[in-house]
Design a protein that fits this description.
With 368 residues, this protein is an alpha+beta fold. The chain is 27% helix and 34% strand. The chain is globular, with a radius of gyration of 28 Å.
């Protein structure tokens, strides 16, 4: 029995090694680069983290939102998952001290299934000096507001004549009373709770040095679907705010050469993400192509905007057949983003992260 079993085992091992080598040759260039200590990776969490609900030790996953590149190419692709735990929580306290969440990350799971051990950290807690300055600035606002209200109350109660007769002392007294009331509000004011939601970007600092293989460009290209004669090129991709200040708009600059037998307009287009959610053109963004008819033989260039639920997901620009509502073509936004200028990428990174304060909006109906 044992004589027959050995050759079977060895043959299986050789086959597995061969498959693994073939897979690695398809994915990697053969070069290895070091992810250095103090590198910062942008991620978004896959579920809500709430300082009022989550506790220390809770596990979660986050997803890398853009390719991490070394000198020779991509070493951590977008879509890589990171396993993390909540290492510390603090509650919101009086004197305006906000809650905080501290997150630890211990390994990455790449799209090709590799598990990479790391040591990464992220915290919403401000530096003590910055936190104190923030509280002082906010409390000064409370006190000034209280002073203004107090002066207004004195003017209403005692009248303009009394203010003139007392050479303004009634107003000063009212302002002082208002200032005291404002200071009292500042002393009892409770800080904000923390909420990190999917779509919010977090910056994770890496504290270990890890050698990583460099991916081939071809290995990271997303699948596309083309229609004969319909040539579409995405030349620029901008991340923008909607009128309410939310960074949820993607504006594409596209070149279209329609040598097919189809007629369509911007209203026949959509962005479709990797969860198959469909987002139609937004009236709050650029509408140059939204209502334009593109007939056989037309060549056009213009912008079109889409409001999405999570700007960090993978997207495909999709054009639908007017008759049967089925996709004619699907062009990967991620593929196009690799060719976007470094200046545009830097601008997009800045606009996506500049307003993230992880402040939880409290329910006004909640009563403590």
């Amino acid at each position: 029995m044992s004589v027959l079993a050995d050759p079977v085992f060895e043959g299986h091992a050789e086959k597995s090694d061969k498959v693994r080598q073939e897979l690695e040759s398809e994915l990697f260039t053969g070069k290895v680069e070091q992810m250095e200590r103090s590198d910062v990776i942008h991620m978004t969490v896959s579920q809500v983290l709430d300082s009022n609900i989550n506790i220390e030790g809770d596990e979660f996953f986050a997803e890398v939102v853009n390719d991490v590149e070394g000198e020779s190419g991509v070493i951590i692709p977008k879509g890589t998952f990171a396993h993390g735990k909540i290492s510390k929580t603090t509650e919101a306290k009086r004197l305006g001290r906000s809650a905080s969440l501290s997150l630890d990350f211990d390994y990455l799971i790449t799209p090709d299934g590799r598990e990479i051990p790391i040591e990464g950290k992220m915290s919403t807690k401000l530096h003590p000096v910055a936190e104190t300055s923030k509280i002082i600035a906010q409390d000064l606002g409370y006190t000034l507001a209280g002073g203004a209200v107090g002066g207004f109350m004195a003017l209403n109660w005692l009248g303009l004549e009394a203010a003139i007769a007392s050479q303004g002392y009634t107003l000063a007294g009212g302002a002082a009373l208002g200032g005291v009331l404002g200071l009292g509000a500042a002393l009892i004011r409770k800080g904000n709770s923390v909420l990190i939601a999917p779509g919010d970007e977090i910056k994770v600092k890496i504290n270990t040095s890890v050698p990583l293989p460099v991916y081939k460009d071809s290995a990271l290209m997303q699948h596309e679907m083309k229609y004969p004669g319909l040539d579409i090129t995405i030349t620029n991709i901008k991340h923008e705010e909607d009128p309410f200040g939310e960074v949820n708009t993607i504006t594409l600059t596209v070149m279209i050469s329609n040598m097919s037998d189809k007629t369509f307009s911007g209203l026949d287009t959509a962005l479709v993400n990797d969860y198959n959610s469909v987002f139609r053109p937004s009236i709050f963004g650029d509408t140059k192509l939204m209502f334009k008819q593109i007939k056989p033989g037309d060549k056009v260039i213009g912008d079109i905007s889409f409001a999405v639920d999570n700007i960090n997901r993978r997207f495909w620009l999709t054009i639908y057949d007017r008759r049967n509502k089925k996709p004619l073509t699907k062009i990967s936004v991620d593929n196009a983003y690799k060719k976007v200028s470094a200046k545009t990428k830097k601008r997009n990174d800045k606009i996506r992260t500049r307003k993230v304060n992880f402040k939880k909006e409290e329910n006004l109906l909640d009563i403590e």
